[in-house]
UniProtKB/TrEMBL annotation:
Comp. bias regions, Low complexity: 30-41
Composition bias, Gly residues: 19-29
Region (Disordered): 16-66, 87-112
Protein name: Uncharacterized protein
Amino acid sequence: AAAVAVALVVQYAPSGRGAAHGGTAGGGAANQAGAHSSAPSGGTGPGSPSGSRTATGSVGGIPGDKITVQPLDAHFTDLAWKDDHTGCLPNSRTDPDAPAELQTSAPRSTMDVKAGGTTRLAMRFKYTWPTRYYVAAQVRQPASLQGSDSSGVVISKPRLLPTNGDYAEFTFPQDFSGEAATTAALVKGTYTVLWLHVHPNGDAYYLGCDGFAVS
């Protein structure tokens, strides 16, 4: 089985606490036999302005498929995963109401993921398991998938976080889509994964950042 790393990230909340990737700024990864933690940020595009799109209403507290990312600061637009050692930069404010100890999982070696293939992305909170808590992931793809008609940004539909401590899991690229000509695909390059808390009205707020490289 492909190895995936798990990392723990301290959220960058309004109190000024810095996001950490295993103790450094950014996010972390874990082992699919491991995991890593990351900090909040959101958006369907690299930084969709707050209120720029209309979120769909919820049914019984369940958010619709359309997500409206609500960045909490200007740094969100430039947030990107650099490498496994550095994590994600710059720091961006996360959802102040999110539980602590976010753990995320993504490939931790270029040997574990190949162009044209698939991979698993996952997240959980290590110690707190909130109920009716929906999450989604936004993936910022390599420059080769960006162009005049494509932002290269894709996003998953919301998924209910398990309440038993298990990870909420997504398969890339199958569970992701973008607007217009933007498609999800694994190609050579660096991918940034932003985890989001999706509220019943479709507004999504940044929880943490992770990423991986494809050889």
